Amino acid sequence: MASATPMSGGGSAPEVKNEPKDGAQVKVEPSGIQKLIQEKAAAQAQTSYKQPARRRGNVVRPSQLTGTLDALKSRIEVDKYDVEAWETLLGQLKPPSGAGRQADIRGRASSDTLRQVYRDFLEVFPTSSAGWRGILELESSEGEQQRVNEGFGQSLLRIKSLDLWRVYIKHVRATNRSDTPDGSNAIKQAYEFTLDHLGTDINSGPLWMEYLFFLQNSNAGVLFGESAAGNEESAKLVAIRRAFQRAVTIPTHSLEALWREYDKFENGVNRQLAKQIINDLQGQYSTSRTIYRELKKKWEGIKGGALATPPGKSHGQYKQQKLWISLIAFERSNPLKLEKESLGVRVELVYNQCLLCLYHFPEIWYEYATWHASAGDKERASEVFKRATEALPSCTILSFAAADFEAAQDKIEEAKKIYEDLLVRVADLEPQTQGQVWIQYMRFLRRTEGASSSRKLFLRARKSEGHSHHIYSTSALLEWQNGKDMKVAKNIFELGLKSFLKETEYVLDYAGFLVSQGDISNARILYERALTVAQGEGARTIWNEFLKFEYQCGDLQSTLALEKRRKEALEELDDVDPDELLKRPGYSIGLLLLRYSVNGMLPCSEKTLGHLQAVKVDEAFYGLPKLASEPESPRTEQPREVIKTEGGQPSNTLPSALSNLLDKLPPRNRLNGPLPSAAEVDSVLQVISSLDFKLLREEEGIPSGGGGASKRKREGVREDRVRDVYRMRQMERARRGR
């Protein structure tokens, strides 16, 4: 990889940093958009009289323009990820295509403000190749060479987009003379630098064509002047052949065209040697052509230029994610059977291109980093984790994974820095998120540096603003699990009660710890303390858990007394008349379910569960597990479909024998085994319906029903074909001679 990007003047720009910070732009100035709105309107007002006369309906009034842009600005202030508003705004503000600096009526101040709008845009969408292209073209049109070079340094290695890199090549060609050794070499290096990074893109065919055209039309003495005297043309041919041979082994949309040009080139150099050279490469070309067809299908539907918005912010994001994941998996499977280094280039590119669109998806970042780690490139994995935490600063899970990765490499200080940086980033977030960071950091220090460091961090966490109760319970359990120090653990829990006695979850954590240590009396005291301050649903939960505790650890008298207290307290809490509660079906038995349930197992049969659900026992009221069984509803007679007959009167009821059979069958919800599918039932019925029982009876000499048949015939009743399964089996056995 080149360490410097070839730039203007035959030299090189300031070094392109391997991993510049994402979105490293000037901070948004709130007045930037408003300035441009005013200037655009003023410019429109000043120049409207200079325009040719037009119909009144086509005139864009300054007030109308201001109103439109102001509305777009308001939309962006409400939702900074409003893609449509941003695209419309930039479309309104950009100068007309092809307008030079002198043609831009807005002047220098307008360019400065437009530059600020682009920076605002890139602050929100740092991976937008269109945004980077726009600001770089603006800087170039203004002659701001330093800013152009800085912009390329910030964006190129992060934005692996052919559109942006073509702007880079265009800039290098515009600022270097191809008829000088330094200039031609700068252009050649720019092409090679670009192809090293994007040459495996499926759309890179035209770029390869452009590079080959440049080589073929270059002056060998100028471009290859460093070669030994008289060998310049030979060096030129070698460079062209090498470029062709790389291009025709890469699956691109231009693969066949490149192959034809290569064949033409070799035959033009030496027809006698061309056949052998072409044949040697034919196998790789054929493989690339085969893989291209598969790769093309993988790319179908992928929107490579989509702006990166957080999950759920734009339509079709998850479909795009599936397409990208499928493409990445295909590339990682190494269908071209490449060497490790070449495979890495391809996979690296597709991950980078995926992140241009799915920049806010943490799972993509994590998979990208772990792919590098699995390939043995720990340094690159660390760089990706760093980029990920910069891209998603409030995504704690990525920072935790990054810290663990560094710790696994024995880089404890780097891991600690990740946690410290994360604490700063989440300082304004909700207490629970802050608590998660403190907890993971304490656990990390306990593992890597011991109890002393973990305790010091706990003291810091206690003094921090906005921490949650979780840090107390975690610290207490760490002390007990690692040091078996009951006294210290209990002291920490008690310390937390000073601030979090009203937190139901914390009280239950502490009570569970006391019960696990056999400290029943203090657990009972804790429940009583919590009930003095508990309110609302928290009070209901405490009462239910307290009652469960007494069921497990108390005697019958204390349990019955607590049941009575709970009943009175909840009646008051719900403001319900006790007489009204008695009218609720299942009210009394719900308490029995709570009393006798064990570890989620309810003290009744499946049949009783169905009944209890039918009478609507309130699981939430008693803190019970969900009564999942379907109730057994009584069978009711439903109007039956009228059966069409060929003769006689239609009937609304089934024959009594069949009706009796259905009544004896268990309800559908009682069936534990697999149910046959509708297709399977239909296939069985079709087989049965296709049997000709009359012909079977005649062949086997089976009577057709005796006198009963004659009677039915006399009365005009149709004799349906036999549908009885038992008879079918008997007839089949008779036919087989069994």
What would the keywords be for this entry?
single chain; 738 residues; 0% strand; 36 helices
Tell me what you see in this structure:
It is found in: Nucleus. Helices cover 65% and strands 0% of the residues. It is mainly α and 738 residues long. The protein starts with 30 loop residues before the first helix and ends with a helix.
Helix content: 55-70%
Number of strands: 0
Beta-strand content bin: under 5%
Low-confidence stretches: 9-38, 40-64, 100-109, 629-638, 708-723
User: Major β-sheet, in short?
Assistant: none
Q: Summarize model confidence as the mean pLDDT.
A: 80
Structural class given helices, strands, pairing?
mainly alpha
Q: How would you sum up the global shape? A: extended
Question: Would you kindly provide a brief summary of this structure?
Answer:
The chain has 36 helices and no strands. By secondary structure, the protein is mainly alpha-helical. It has a domain of 56 residues.
Helix/strand layout:
Blueprint: H1 31-47, H2 62-78, H3 83-93, H4 107-124, H5 129-141, H6 145-155, H7 162-174, H8 181-198, H9 205-216, H10 220-223, H11 232-247, H12 255-269, H13 271-299, H14 317-332, H15 340-357, H16 362-374, H17 378-391, H18 396-408, H19 412-425, H20 431-448, H21 451-463, H22 470-483, H23 486-500, H24 504-516, H25 520-531, H26 536-553, H27 556-574, H28 578-582, H29 587-596, H30 606-614, H31 619-622, H32 656-664, H33 678-690, H34 693-700, H35 707-714, H36 725-736
Helix pairs in contact: 1-2, 1-4, 2-3, 4-5, 5-6, 5-7, 7-8, 8-9, 9-11, 11-12, 12-13, 14-15, 16-17, 17-18, 18-19, 18-20, 19-20, 20-21, 20-22, 21-22, 22-23, 23-24, 24-25, 25-26, 26-27, 34-36
Organism: Chloropicon roscoffensis
Domain Suppressor of forked: 71-608
Subcellular location: Nucleus
